[in-house]
Amino acid sequence: MQASNVWGGLNAENPANFDGKPAGLLSVNGKLYMAVTEQGSFFRQKICESTNHGATWNCTGWVFDYPGGMWSSMSFLQFGQDYQGARDNYVYVYTHMDGSSAPRNNILLGRVAKENVMDRNSYEFFTGLDGNNNPTWSSNINDSVPTFSDPNSVGFGRNIMYHPTLDRYILMSHHDEDGGWGIFDAPEPWGPWTTVAYFDAWLDTKFKFGFNIPLKWVSGSDFVMVFSGIGKYDDWNTVKGTFITEAIPEPTNPPQTPSGLSIIIQ
Question: What is the pTM of this model?
Answer without folding.
Answer: 0.90
